[in-house]
Amino acid sequence: MQRHGRCTRRYENHVNRVHPCSAAISACGRFIATGSEDNCAYVYDIRSSGYLHKLQNFSNPVLSVGFHPATTQLMTGTLDGKLRLFQPSSGALLPRDASAAAH
Question: Residue 42: phi, psi to the nearest 5?
């Protein structure tokens, strides 16, 4: 396989102008998540350029995103230090005790 230094796919819609917002790829290789300064996080299907879910209702910019290494659960972190856990395939916010099931 030849590698070329060119862009093969763009994932857009998230805003990143002032704060460094992270991006993450799930261990299963199916999802890409990004933080955003528009107080949302975005979950993309790795095979397309469109987003699957726009995770909303954050009170501050979403600066950090990360996937659990053994599950597809997505953790988001906002500028005010709040953490939330999501199921990326559905975009559903998981209850606070869901993190105990991930251990």
Answer: -120, 140
